[in-house]
Backbone:
């Protein structure tokens, strides 16, 4: 009988990785088309509609970028912590706290000029997000709590705080009792780039993306982070201050997710309301893993997953496919891409019976 | 990297070459906040869409599970871009996004459900569901033996509070001793949470469960415990045949068909429409077999009175929970008071926070 033989690959080339990635994508897409066929929809036509809806027009690309921005910011936030093998599931809550921080400043100082108010709001959102990240970090190093549980629980806590504020003290008196703050003053709204619907948040993304790359590529701290992530014991032996690094990654991740909350509330909603919580913090985790924590790939994956969401909306209009199709596709893509990582590191061959 | 660039290039070519629509038919789009399979709010609107779909020279489509906020702005905008002539947005949170889009597409007719903002090409509409709630309250009040009715409710906003008040007034009209206990779930659609909330009400002795939720979860909870229930949105008797007494239900079809006709004839004008029982936009689902004939007749008589305008639901004297008189004897609440209602009538156990 023949047996499978699994051997570790000596080296991996970028082209090989690319091939595997697109192979995985193709497998998830074909699963998607099978689901479409089971529903009695044209499978290939359906995927074409999906693609066309997401990327087939200039304004569709614009929509994908707008939706991709907060995902990208949250995603590089969690990716920093993942590099250290600290499992920060809390981007959702840090995002919520960031939007609260920004809104607080916008509501307290509505008449300040834009050049003061916007940087202030951004600072407040980063601070609030960073604080929300700092708490699980301190608990982890002082009390040895599990950061997965703590960050996850703190997501709910942050959402409850947000709900309390928009249902209570911050509720717009003219909103007929609906939970939302008053609309921000013009000075608190991020300007758009030229004639597009894209806000200046895009430049923030590019800036933070490059900063992330520079940090891990060229700084000593970034190197220590990567090294500690790969082997904590060796890092401790080399006297790398592991605890400080845990605090650092959680604070930076929180600040980035907080910034996403600022961009979303200021540029896209122009106010705070419960529907700001669209699950970007969780999508960000999917994105970070699909992209293998590489900032350029994170940008690409954020854009593609946003495109999937936008495309499914068009697919609904064209073929009346259930909205849940988008969730299923996202899950499938994550599964296949993560599973394919195995084939990147190992080679499978057949072994003759002895 | 090259491959990716190629992929985008191919995508762009496919996209630009095939994006064209033949536009003779009137195209009508619907935006829903939950899945149409919810048996509730969006299901009822989708039934209305199907009525429009049945008209000659009209095609319809929809997007479901569209969250309020930036996502809804994009969905509404894409419908407008793709040449939809009329767009119905069926959740409160779509109001500001729709207003934004309406400013950019002056030739498209925008219709927003349950809000209060208007533009030249954007009207709003809702139904006087509280009238049907009052009738369902009468049924619940008469059928309760413990004099405790449980009410699973979504969010403390005026629409829901108004419904609870009307329901309670109806129940009190047939059973002065009855009290209505309210639990907030803070969700419109979450079958498991709604069911749990219903169970918590059953645990404190409620023997009729009513709901302002979009899933039949509370109905199932009532059936499992062998008590009665009042549904919402659509006839939910299929989910709990032994429990389901009746339900205040939506019937959007005739209204939607009427709006589409007006647009086609060029007579449509932006307005704030709030039709009720008289126009058939809200109604009462068929009674379950356990509801006595006498009670059925009494409720139907009241229904006729309300529909004819002879009886009003919010007619004074009405006191709030603290005993303060909110509507004086002989007075009827104005529409403005109803739209901004944030207090509970006497007899409701719960807070509006």
Residues:
């Amino acid at each position: 009988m023949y047996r499978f033989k699994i051997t570790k690959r000596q080296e991996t080339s970028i082209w090989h990785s690319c091939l595997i990635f697109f192979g995985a994508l193709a497998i998830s897409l074909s699963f998607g088309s099978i689901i479409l066929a089971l529903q009695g929809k044209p499978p290939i036509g359906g995927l074409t509609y999906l693609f066309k809806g997401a990327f087939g027009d200039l304004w569709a690309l614009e929509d994908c970028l707008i939706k991709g921005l907060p995902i990208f910011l949250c995603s590089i936030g969690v990716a920093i912590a993942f590099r250290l093998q600290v499992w920060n599931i809390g981007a959702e809550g840090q995002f919520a706290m960031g939007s609260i921080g920004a809104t607080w400043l916008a509501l307290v100082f509505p008449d300040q000029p834009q050049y003061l108010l916007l940087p202030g709001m951004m600072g407040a959102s980063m601070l609030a997000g960073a604080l929300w990240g700092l708490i699980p970090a301190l608990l982890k190093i002082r009390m040895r709590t599990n950061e997965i549980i703590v960050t996850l629980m703190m997501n709910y806590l942050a959402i409850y705080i947000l709900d309390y504020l928009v249902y209570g003290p911050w509720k717009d008196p003219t909103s007929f009792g609906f939970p939302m703050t008053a609309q921000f003053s013009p000075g608190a709204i991020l300007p758009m780039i030229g004639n597009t619907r894209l806000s200046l948040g895009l430049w923030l993304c590019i800036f933070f993306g490059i900063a992330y790359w520079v940090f891990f590529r060229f700084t000593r701290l970034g190197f220590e982070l990567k090294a500690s992530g790969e082997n904590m014991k060796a890092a401790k032996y080399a006297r790398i201050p592991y605890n400080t690094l845990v605090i650092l990654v959680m604070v930076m991740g929180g600040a980035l997710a907080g910034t996403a909350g600022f961009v979303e509330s200021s540029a896209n909603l122009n106010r705070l309301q419960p529907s700001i919580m669209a699950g970007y913090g969780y999508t960000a985790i999917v994105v970070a893993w699909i992209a293998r924590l590489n900032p350029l790939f994170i940008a690409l994956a954020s854009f593609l997953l946003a495109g999937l969401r936008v495309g499914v909306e068009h697919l609904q209009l064209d073929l009346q496919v259930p909205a849940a199709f988008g969730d299923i596709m996202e899950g499938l893509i994550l599964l296949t891409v993560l599973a394919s990582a195995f084939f990147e590191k190992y080679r499978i061959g057949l072994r003759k019976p002895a | 990297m090259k491959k990716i660039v190629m992929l985008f290039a191919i995508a762009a070519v496919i996209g630009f070459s095939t994006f064209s629509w033949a536009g003779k038919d009137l195209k009508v789009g619907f935006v829903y906040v939950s899945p149409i399979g919810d048996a509730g709010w969006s299901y009822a609107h989708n039934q209305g869409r199907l009525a429009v779909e049945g008209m000659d020279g009209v095609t319809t489509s929809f997007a479901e599970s569209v969250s309020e906020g930036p996502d809804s702005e994009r969905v509404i905008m894409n419908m407008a871009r793709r040449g939809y002539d009329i767009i119905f947005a069926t959740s409160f949170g779509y109001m500001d996004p729709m207003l934004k889009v309406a400013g950019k597409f002056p030739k498209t007719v925008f219709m927003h459900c349950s809000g209060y903002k208007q533009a030249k090409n954007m009207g709003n509409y809702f139904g006087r569901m509280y009238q049907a709630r009052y009738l369902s309250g009468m049924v619940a009040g008469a059928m309760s033996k413990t004099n405790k009715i449980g009410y699973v409710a979504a969010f403390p906003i005026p629409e829901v509070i108004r419904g609870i008040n009307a329901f309670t007034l109806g129940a009190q009209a047939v059973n002065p001793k009855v009290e209505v206990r309210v639990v907030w779930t803070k969700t419109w659609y979450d079958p498991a949470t709604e069911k749990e909330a219903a169970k918590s009400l059953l645990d404190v002795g409620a023997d009729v469960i009513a709901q302002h939720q979009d899933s039949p979860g509370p109905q199932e909870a009532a059936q499992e415990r062998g008590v009665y229930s009042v549904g919402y949105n659509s006839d939910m008797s299929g989910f709990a045949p032994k429990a389901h007494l009746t339900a205040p239900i939506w019937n959007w079809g005739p209204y939607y068909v009427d709006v589409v006709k007006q647009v086609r004839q060029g007579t449509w004008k932006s307005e704030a429409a709030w039709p009720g029982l008289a126009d058939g936009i809200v109604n009462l689902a068929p009674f379950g077999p356990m509801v006595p004939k006498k009670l059925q007749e009494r409720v139907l008589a009241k229904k006729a009175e309300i529909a004819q305008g002879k009886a009003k639901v919010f007619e004074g004297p009405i006191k709030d929970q603290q005993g303060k008189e909110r509507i004086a004897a002989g007075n009827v609440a104005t529409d403005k008071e109803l739209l901004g209602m944030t207090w509970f009538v006497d007899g409701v156990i719960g807070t509006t926070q």
Q: What stands out?
A: Chain B touches chain A through 46 residues (CB under 8 Å).
